[in-house]
Write a structure and sequence with these properties.
Order of helices and strands: HEEHHHHHEE
Radius of gyration: 42 Å
Strand order of the largest sheet: 1-2
Largest sheet: 2 strands, antiparallel
Helix content: 40-55%
Length: 257
């Protein structure tokens, strides 16, 4: 190796990796060996606008599995929609193959996600290089829309893999003494007679209470004499008289019954 003056210089030796680095490299090799090899194509540019992709028989079988199809026409159609540069198209194929699409619908969605991600990252890079605030705001708004679209695409892809079903798993449910647990969906609808919230069984949790709810129910305990206290004494004698009427004159009493 020569320096800027043409003199020979010894080749610098690479630093010796530490034990932690060696352990990390061994772990990475083990994990990479367990992963599937992603498809890779060789793109040849014939002219400025025309490119040719060389697909061998072995690679054709891999691409069919990558796009979750048995149609070679579908594979060629999807490849024509991906970026034409070799690095970009192989990166897109790796991303699509990573989703493991089971059919053409899932493969098309994965292709859309690749393009959406590429445009979103491009817009974010342009925001950093923008000279005017107006340009940065416009590019940032477009990047935000693309990122939201990408998130929605991820949710749709996950739903397709679940087959449209949603599984809810509840773990570690503690019900203490005197409490009640409700397992299932609870509807937060307003109760009919008031502003309370009712569950799916029709029981009102709070809010206005109807008058019939306060009515006497058979078997309910009613107010009665307290056995622990003495009753009020009754007046003795048989000559009980009625209380005088306030509308009568002085000295007038009601006739005895």
């Amino acid at each position: 190796m020569r320096d800027a003056y043409g003199r020979w210089q010894p080749t610098p030796k690479e630093p010796t990796p530490t034990p932690r680095t060696m352990a990390r490299i061994a772990e990475a090799r083990q994990r990479n060996a367990a992963r599937l090899e992603r498809p890779s194509l060789e793109v040849k540019r014939i002219s400025e606008k025309v490119t040719h992709t060389d697909i061998t028989s072995d690679m054709a079988e891999t691409l069919l599995d990558t796009f979750g199809t048995t149609s070679s026409d579908f594979v060629h159609a999807e490849l024509s929609r991906l970026p034409s540069e070799q690095t970009e198209i192989n990166a897109a194929l790796a991303a699509i193959d990573g989703t493991r699409p089971e059919n053409e619908t899932a493969a098309m969605l994965a292709s859309q996600m690749v393009v959406t991600h590429r445009l979103a990252m491009d817009m974010l890079g342009r925001v950093r290089r923008a000279d005017l605030l107006v340009q940065a705001e416009a590019l940032g708004a477009l990047a935000t829309k693309l990122l939201r679209t990408y998130t929605m695409q991820m949710e749709v892809l996950a739903k397709l893999k679940r087959g449209g079903e949603q599984t809810v798993r509840v773990e570690h449910v503690h019900v203490y003494s005197g409490g009640q647990a409700v397992v299932g969906a609870v509807s937060n609808q307003l109760a009919r007679g008031g502003g309370g919230v009712a569950d799916e069984r029709g029981n009102q949790a709070d809010g206005a209470i109807e008058a019939r709810a306060l009515a006497f129910a058979p078997g309910a305990a009613m107010f009665g004499p307290d056995a622990g206290r003495d009753a009020l004494p009754e007046s003795g004698g048989d000559g009980q008289e009625a209380l005088p009427d306030a509308r009568r004159g002085k000295g007038q009493r009601r006739a005895p019954r």
